[in-house]
């Protein structure tokens, strides 16, 4: 059985790690370089770096900062924010990223997924889906969650897979930062409908929430931010808990 992955997320704004609730009310959470080093040493399975204002500010991801983070980690490292072309992907891979995460650019031009997958391999391409429940529908949002689209989440997830994405980073905006648990039903429905891995994001607050998203939610990986940044749940403690509850995880000796 494949092990379930625990993934800390560095949401970066102005060179600092930040975290909010429902994508707003951001507060400082520390130096991304220092946090990355800690997470790699603690046994996190992967690390995600999201430049959360790159798209809305119409600029590229902070390559110099990405390079500094990459130098501190020896685990798979995904970078997202403002990535919209092959040139952007090449820059991120050159600075040390293993995978890239695309969102707004893919929604605006879905063919981008196919182009990137063809050039760099599906394993390199993560499509992030920021979704909110609006008027009875799960709707995709872009530009760091600022803009709702007419795109329905389930249809988009299926298209993303068909176009060659290697995995999906699914963030429930309704759950984000609430610490009330992941969107289990939504995650499970996508996991059942798709064959590529689903990374669940949004709502982690307790170790039980992780167990639930791996069992009820059928997620392949779980991503969280504030509970790790503010030392509420250390990665080693979380993994020991999951192992005790028969969830397969990678344990660092």
Give a verbal description of the structure.
This protein is α/β, with parallel strands linked by helices. The protein has one domain (5-244): Aldolase class I (TIM Barrel), CATH 3.20.20.70. It has 10 helices and 12 strands. An 8-stranded parallel beta barrel has the order 1-4-5-6-7-10-11-12, surrounded by 6 helices. A hairpin with a 2-residue loop joins β2 and β3. α1 (32-42) runs parallel beside α2. The protein is globular. It starts with a strand and ends in a 9-residue tail after the last helix. The model has no long low-confidence stretch (mean pLDDT 90).
Concise synopsis of the structure shown:
This protein is α/β, with parallel strands linked by helices. The protein has ten helices and twelve strands.
Query: In order across it, which strands form the biggest sheet?
Result: 1-4-5-6-7-10-11-12
User: Which CATH class applies here?
Assistant: Alpha Beta
Q: What is the overall shape?
A: globular
CATH architecture level-2 label: Alpha-Beta Barrel
Can you give the mean pLDDT? Answer: 90
Number of helices: 10
The helix fraction, in percent, is 25-40%
Considering the protein shown, what is the CATH homologous superfamily? Aldolase class I
- In the predicted model, the low-confidence regions spanning at least 5 consecutive residues are none
Distance between the termini: 20 Å
Radius of gyration: 16 Å
Largest sheet data: 8 strands, parallel, barrel
Taken in chain order, the helices and strands follow as: EEEHEHEHEHHEEEHEHEHEHH
Q: Assign the structural class, choosing from mainly alpha, mainly beta, alpha/beta, alpha+beta, or little secondary structure.
A: alpha/beta
Query: What name is given to the CATH topology?
Result: TIM Barrel
